[in-house]
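Field reference: sequence -> structure
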Amino acid sequence: MEGDECGGFPPEPSEGSSQRGSVASSVTRAQDVLVYLVGDSAVHLCVEGVACVSVQELGRSVREALHIPDSAMDAFAFWLCSPLLELQLKPKHQPYKLCRQWQDLLYRFTEASEEDISQDEPCLQYRRNVFHPKSKELQIEDEGVLRLLYDEARVNILAGRFPCDPETWTGLGALSFAMELGVGLDDQKATAALREKKLISFLPAHVSGGGGGLFSTLRGKGGRQAGLEHNLLEEYRKISTLGSTPPEPTQHLRQYLSTCHSLPYYGCAFFSGEIDKPAQGILHRAGRKAVNVGISLEGVYVMDIKEKHVLLGLRFSELSWDHSYPEGEGDSHILWLEFDGEEAGTPVNKLLKIYSKQAELMSGLIEFCVELQSAGDGGVAATETDNDVSLSHQPAGQAENSDRGRGGRRGKLRRQSSVVCSRVHTLNTISYVDNGKEIKRLKPKRAASFFTRQAQPPTYSSVQVEQG
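Structure field:
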């Protein structure tokens, strides 16, 4: 499958096997089809010839059922999703036929066991289109469309798929609280409502759910929960005191989405992979670290699954890439990312290896997004979705105060920097000087001239290997 038809977000925990596979029966007469939204709801359709119906045909029925205006039709797309794999579909695709090929796709793009593959079934979801620019999303005025986008963004925040700093997830949690309970509650009612709903309804699971870690060690779980509750209610009070008139129905929805837009990986398709850990200890033991790779219209973001922070974030103008297939038994598919760096004061090209059976999908998606960007720069976007590409990108946290001196008293434990900032120094990369000469005793299995420095201004594309 081509990269521009693929993408993914982690599935909802509530999607059980009883819900999946609603499109996986072939008949020519009218059949019930459930198209799931991000959350607990679904659109119930009665479809004739479900085995041959296309995404484009289903889209008209879903938009009609959800009252989505034509002006926002490109904001959403159909996805086939399961706990093992997620793919965004093209208008021409026929979901039923892809369901019949699902096991083949799992063998090709996942490391799942035969048993897991045999039991896995996809469900059909209607969610945000990865090729829909954020600039166009801000122009949407329909409350129902904004609500769908909010529901998806909220799920990604609560699941920790959009890493963000405490001030960000606290503010977003307070907005969700205000939308669900209304503004103007006094302290007693607000506290009671929050305890009834529980913090996990408004804050990311890795923050509100406990489960050990540094915070739990230094402060008891009860104290930590009380602190989170206090901060959330403080933000809620600020929202309640803003303005003397009730907010417009879309005001908080727009505010929530606008905050999410400041996160560079909002709108990404996500893929699973692993990267090498730096060798540690006297035995120089190494291993691999599980990562999520987010790819959007703007760039590529590698995120630590466990720590919930960004390891590397690059715009397309800042990177070169390639995908290599396994060369021998036990080898992996690899997505190679090359970017500018520094080694002991010397400018170098840094090379990061991402091991993943989904490397082919990631490479194809990067290539398609770069083509969209080039088409947008030329004033014409000749794509299936007819989207103009806007590449305004200002990651939050880049200008954060770096004064983290160890001396003196600290009021709170803080991370080294914003979770949105890249942590290139923690990556195990291969480095080259400008002329391609290797300066480390680490070498990719392909030619040492794997990458060549791009001319400035950068016009990056898939890296070509020199033949020799």
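Note: Residues 1-27, 211-219, 378-416, 438-468 have pLDDT under 50 and may be disordered.
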